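User: Second chain of the day. Same drill as before.
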Amino acid sequence: MRPLLVLFLGALSLAAQPFSFGVKGGVPLTDTLSVIENPENFHTSTNRYIVGATAELHLPFGFGVEVDALYRHMSYTSSVDIADAFVNSRASSGDWEFPLLAKYRFPSKLARPYVDAGIAWDTLSGLSQTVTTTLLFPSGTPMTTTTSNPAELNKNTTEGFVIGAGLDVHLLLIHISPEIRYTRWGAQHFLSSNGGLSSNQNQAEFLVGITF
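Assistant: Same format as last time:
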């Protein structure tokens, strides 16, 4: 009985804490970058994962304030013939997203539906592009250069509006919270001069939080 009583009291004590913290991860439901047919022959790749940390301040009457730090990775390539040269490039970047959300949980015992809304900041991290130029005539050794400011870069940091809905499931000492979240970004990170490559300003994702 004593171990069960200790576990029960510990759970009550944890539930009474005004703060919770944990991890959050998931998958993007939309591509970060978009391409259309263009002379530069862009191709993109969005890693199918999102991972990060989450924390929440619990307020009375089911309200709360949540802040997240979420990371994802993206890359794109291009290839084009320019006069007597063939130019191939590859760019990759990390992407940090920081949502600040007001949350409301509906009354329930074990599984509480919730909605949230707020703002988010998004910034690129470790952006790098490698450009390889090969002369077609006369043929020679390829020349390679690296830059952190590719021509397609439009804005390194952007802000957006976030809405979401999910379910908070309480299991002993942890909360598991699956959620669908939508973000509308105010500006595009990437936008090529001919419109062949662009960032998607509409972002949807499925996330699962595990908090203590």
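The radius of gyration is 23 Å.

User: Great, on to the next one.
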